[in-house]
Amino acid sequence: MTTQSDIAAALQRQGVNVYGLQVSGSEVRGTVGTEADRDKAQQAIRAVASDAQVSLQVNSGFADQATRSGEATAGRTYTVKAGDTLSKIAKDVYGDASQWKKIHAANRDAIPNPDMIHPGQELQLP
């Protein structure tokens, strides 16, 4: 069974924000800011939960709010899982493992040594 954190991680890798994400069994609900985000989110969700029944509402107010507050490009987080490295996270999130330095710079207080991250750590993604 796919968990909410699995789905949230897939959405995060695709760079799409789903507000009020709820996963109950095979049903996934939430709100996105644009039709394009809905398509992107549905694709990401179905990649990890092919049998999911996805119900995403579009509310352009969320897109406007994200743009005004800068959330469209910043403010995302990632929860470290066992076996993760900054390079692996960068490859999953940005498609380029060498971008690990961006993640480290954004989390320097929480990660003094980039070779030592721990499951459960919440990282800011620039």
At a glance:
This protein has 5 helices and 5 strands.
Summed up, the domain count is 2
Broad CATH class of the largest domain: Alpha Beta
Rg estimate, integer Å = 15 Å
Please state the second-level CATH architecture of the largest domain.
2-Layer Sandwich
Ends distance: 30 Å
Chart the SSEs and their pairings.
Layout: H1 4-14, E1 19-24, E2 27-32, H2 35-48, E3 53-58, H3 60-69, E4 76-79, H4 86-94, H5 100-106, E5 122-125
Parallel strand pairs: 2-3
Antiparallel strand pairs: 1-2, 4-5
Helix pairs in contact: 1-2, 4-5
Characterise the protein shown here.
The protein is of the alpha+beta class and 126 residues long. The protein has 2 domains: 4-69, Alpha-Beta Plaits, CATH 3.30.70; 76-125, Roll (Membrane-bound Lytic Murein Transglycosylase D, Chain A), CATH 3.10.350.10. 40% of the residues lie in helices and 21% in strands. The protein is built from 5 helices and 5 strands; from the N terminus they run αββαβαβααβ. The chain has helices at residues 4-14, 35-48, 60-69, 86-94, 100-106; strands at 19-24, 27-32, 53-58, 76-79, 122-125. α2 (35-48) links the parallel β2 (27-32) and β3. α1 (4-14) packs across α2 (35-48) and α4 packs across α5. The termini are far apart. The model is unreliable at 67-73 (pLDDT under 50).
